Amino acid sequence: MQVLLQLTKASAGYAGHAVLHDIDLTIHVGERVAIMGRSGAGKSTLLSLIHERLTERVALIPQAAALVKTLSVFHNVYMGRLDRHPTWYNLRNLAWPARRDVAEIEGVLDLVGLSDKLFAAAGALSGGQQQRTSVARALYNGRPIVIGDEPVSSLDRIQGGEILGTLCARHETTILAMHDIPLALSHVGRIVVIEAGRIVLDHPARELSAGDLVPYYGG
Known about the structure:
Layout: E1 3-14, E2 17-28, E3 32-36, H1 43-54, E4 58-61, H2 73-78, H3 87-95, H4 99-111, H5 127-141, E5 145-149, H6 157-170, E6 173-177, H7 181-187, E7 190-195, E8 198-204, H8 210-213
C-alpha cells in the first residue's frame, strides 16, 4: 500500500504545553482510520498535526461545525470550493447563485438529508443539521482525504452510521476522531487509541471488540 503519511517520534502542543509525545504513525492511501480515546487525550491535536502535513489534499470537518450562521446552507457548503474560483465569481454567487452550483450543492445536501434546507439560514438549523451541513461542505470539497473531528457526534447512531458510510464511500482516505465505539468498529478498518498524548493501541478494527476499547474511556 502507498504511504500517505508517516510520523516518527512526533510531538505537538500549544502555548508551550506538550499534548502529543513520541507519536509513531503511518497511514496508507485508502485506509479508514478512527482516532479514539477519552476527552483531552490528544485526538484533536493529532488530527491537526495530520492536517498540517496533508492540507492541500484534505476536506476538513472541524469539531465545531464552523459555519457562517448568517449565511444560507447553500453558501456555507459552497465555501468548500471557495479557493477554486476567482474572487469575482465568488462575489457573484454570494448575491446571485449560479444554477449549476445550486443544482450541484442541492445534490450533495440530499446525501445528508438537507436538500429542503438549501437556502435556510445556517444559524436557524438544529445542532445536528449544522453538523450535517459541515459534512456536506466536506463532501462538496471533494478532495481525496477527509479528516473529521467527531463529525457525527450530534447525530443519532442510525443517522450517524449513514453519514459515515457516505463519507467513506466518497473519499479515498478517511481519518476521523470518534468517541462512539460501535460506530467506529462498524465503519473503519483501523482503530488508533490515544491516551495522555501517546498511542496506546493501533489495531485492525475487525480484530477488536467493544470490550477492548471501553477501558480507555473509563475513569
